[in-house]
Amino acid sequence: MKKKFMPEPFKIKAVEPMYLLGREEREEAIKKAGFNTFLLRSNECYIDLLTDSGTNAMSDRQWAGLMTGDEAYAGSRNFYNLEETVREYFGFEYVIPTHQGRGAENILSSLTIKPGDYVPGNMYFTTTRFHQERNGANFRDVICDEAHDPNRDDVPFKGNVDINKFQALIDDVGAEKIPYICLAVTVNLAGGQPVSMGNIKAVSELAHKHGIKVMYDATRCVENAYFIKTREEGYEDVSIKDIVREMFSYGDGCTMSGKKDCITNIGGFLCVNDKDLYTQATAMVVQFEGMPSYGGLAGRDMEAMAIGIREAMDYDYISHRVNQIRYLGEKLEAAGVPMVKPFGGHAIFLDARGFLSHLEQEEFPAQALSSAIYRESGVRTMERGIVSAGRDVKTGENHKPKLETVRLTIPRRVYTYAHLDYVADSIIELYEKRETIKGLQWEYEPSCLRFFTGRFTEK
């Protein structure tokens, strides 16, 4: 009989010791970090759920692949292996490696956006919107309304684009002002929510009808494919590989952070089908990243990324990955802890407004909750609310997202169910004394991407 939660589909070959600091040491550490978990040192964190970006455990095959690194300055054979792998699994014609996903975002935004353009997307992501706005674009959120409601657990694809919103933007500003739609699969800040194949097709049809490119944020495309396989009719017997390939067949390119669904510690790439855009991108990658055949990466890292792409398509791997999130979510849900539902593919997103109902949004409840979780347990998490949303580039006013969340992000192949038990028990204990958590105020606010390096004090 198959168990509800199967054991990890891997054996442990190497270990890294973990240490839990005492309560007083954790108090001192978070104060020294300005109540910003990004500024904690890694050795101060017991279980690190800050991000799944580059925090993955690589396989024995990937580690073996590192030893085959061809570190030639130009024409590395590892690049050609990566290029062949991306073409096979993603289907795009041209591949430009970059040091990580935001390198690809920078190139795409710089080459396609003119001041005054509009870029629609199914909810913003921090670095993506930064590069779009830096190049003069106006971001427009065209995600379905249900994505902004953490309690709507009856919508299996909360990452879907609202086609009527997309059409309204085209009618309002004109298709010539929209260089592309940014389609994230999955949608990080909505709670790791997926996009259905049916919606992808509809977005593609509308966009291409008006001469608008469809550019994916492909960072967690394998997780999105898993949800299509398990939630969308007609795909239950289709392989993850074939679902990924079909998803991308409706688009014109993608940006990719290899630090997520390529299961590596560094790397990314930009894919396009347009030869002219590819030629421009290769000229730009030389300016900012490196030669078009390495893009800021060592040959060994490109080899690990190519191997990781193949490993990520394994159903047992991705099923366990997503079920770890579900396991943690169900434990918290049973205790009444408020969170975004349904559970996403890479993290549990605590509803900080529901958790800390005594705090106003301007008191940064998600930032305060993330700090309190560390203080309580040594578990590092991340704010995803008003701080991450930043300020309007024109008015200077805070963006006030409806979702004010704390992200508990599970690295790939790193932690076991026992680690997640500790996380759940710690948060449940904190929830029972949540009224003791104080709000925060700015001590230092950077001019952009403030969540990375900003500092706070308690009110």
UniProtKB/TrEMBL annotation:
Q: Give EC number(s), comma-separated.
A: 4.1.99.2
Q: Name one GO molecular function term.
A: tyrosine phenol-lyase activity
Going by the record, the broad EC class of this enzyme is: lyase
Q: Which residues form a coiled coil?
A: none
- Report the cofactors: pyridoxal 5'-phosphate
InterPro entries registered for this protein in UniProt: ArAA_b-elim_lyase/Thr_aldolase, Beta-eliminating_lyase, PyrdxlP-dep_Trfase, PyrdxlP-dep_Trfase_major, PyrdxlP-dep_Trfase_small, Tyr_phenol_ly
Listed under catalytic activity are: L-tyrosine + H2O = phenol + pyruvate + NH4(+)
| Modification sites for N6-(pyridoxal phosphate)lysine | K260
The alphabetical list of record keywords is:
Lyase, Pyridoxal phosphate
Which GO terms are recorded in the biological process aspect for this UniProt protein? tyrosine metabolic process
**UniProt superkingdom:** Bacteria
Identify the Pfam families for this entry: Beta_elim_lyase
Q: Which intervals hold domain Aromatic amino acid beta-eliminating lyase/threonine aldolase?
A: 48-425
Question: What PANTHER family does UniProt report for this protein, alphabetically?
Answer: BETA-ELIMINATING LYASE-LIKE PROTEIN-RELATED, TRYPTOPHANASE
**The protein's assembly and partners:** Homotetramer.
Membership in a protein family: Belongs to the beta-eliminating lyase family.
Designated name of the protein: Tyrosine phenol-lyase
